[in-house]
Design brief:
alpha/beta, TIM Barrel, Rossmann fold, 2 domains, 5-stranded parallel beta sheet, 20 helices, about 40% helix, about 15% strand, elongated, binds zinc ion
Amino acid sequence: MKKNCVLLFYIILVVSPAAFLSTRCMADCSTTLTEKRPWLGLHILITTKDKTEQLTEVVKDLAKIGVNSIVAEINYGYEYKSHPELTSGNPSSKELIKKLVDECRENHIRLIPQFQCLGHQSWKETTFPLLKRYPQFDETPGEYSKNEAIYCRSWCPLHPEVNSIIFDLMDELIGAFEADALHVGMDEVFLIGEDVCPRCKGKSKAELFAKAVNDYHKHIVDKHKIEMLMWSDRLIDSSKINYGKWESSANNTAGAIEIIPKDIIVCDWHYERRDAYESIPMFLNKGFRVWPASWRKPEAAKALIDYSRTFSNPRMVGHLNTTWGAVPIKELAGYEPLKYSISVFRTTQKTYLSEVKELMQQKWPNNHTVNIVCHGHSVPAGYFKTPDVDTFNAYPHLLHQALKAKYPYSVINVIVTAIGGEASDSGAKRFEQDVLSHRPDVITIDYALNDRRIGLDKSRESLTSMIEQAKSRGIKILLLTPTGDLSAKLSDPEDPLNKQAELVRELSRLSDVGLVDSLAEFKAYISNGGCLDELMSQVNHPNRKGHELVVKAMMEWF
Ligand SMILES: [Zn+2]
């Protein structure tokens, strides 16, 4: 499938250059984290100094796409002064962490260090420094040579000397990160309450797990007066909510949930698509704050976000994206699942058009006409294979149909003011006369494909001008990122099409207007095994299927 896409692309490029020439399209700062704003987060491993440096370099780009919190898992990758014997490999220095802290602060990103507690004390054959240096802390000392037949080692939560050492490490991290929260990990603890441990043998695993949680909570929340986060899986009873033994507990730890403090923020990770994620209401109902976490599958992330957003609960704090090496740190800001989940999260905040929606729900005689103007270039104008204009298969008409299906009592005009071949500088000049004169309730603006021609600065200027004019009249705006283009290199963040999409996303954030992320929809289609060509009627114009993707994203606002 992928090979065919490439082949077709070259056929168009080499055999039919005329196809290019004939096309018309050739022709928070407010991201400070507060309880009211969603936590749009990223979890990343910085277990070596290289990774810390790389992360520092991309913080600004991450802020640009909307990330406002980072969980940085460092574990033994720090130059601990209190316990230099527990530093491993190629660790980060205090100075290096300071640079990361400053960069995050400057970009309004909350930085939360993570130290993996209790479990995950080895990986494959490698046992990590704590249990290597202090084998007496091991829950299964001397067992499982070369870590065979186990997933990861655990430390013993009842060993009388382990906490004082761990707390020294936590203290240093909290200081170096100037942290207002610490993530203690605690996922996938399979070795706990083992028979070979003289202290834990025969004890309740739930109580042992809870003791560990409570010990860390006392140190982090009671003593340091900062917040504590942890992964969710050991608190979910797999006999009640069966996610399998990894993301729920089949080893009797789940009872701990009843005997731990409820001010802990639970990072509830689920990486597969499901119809329901029942642990979310379970945690919310018990009083926890919940930060659902997804991984690399956009569809699974979207399902998790959509489901979590159905609970309009102030304890639902946002969304956390994990990466687990799926993308090099340098390319994080272009990591599609992250951008996709951020855009989906933002577009699921449906209040922006609530007044318009309310209006469309009114029945005669209380209703009145709603005007939606689609402004832009050839795509909203309906050009398919130039010069054919397939109005009734293009997104303005499809939007009209979708709205009428959803709001049967409404009177809606969808007015197209788009001109093939136009860029936003011309579109801005005629904005008042051609667009505002219709007294629109909503305006969609779609110029990104052609704005590659005029460059980012001019594009920013003219888009901003249109946004400001509309906002000053109280008109709602949906900004569109570009639809696909066979001549663009979608996987390259530096490709002008991607740059243009970034600008549109940034402007929507800065101006607080709606975003329809068409390009993210096209990319999600491709990452799910589809071929861009299946969405196109010519190199730069979508076909009906492509237009349907745009409408799907638009309808999330209505
Ligand atoms: Zn033990």
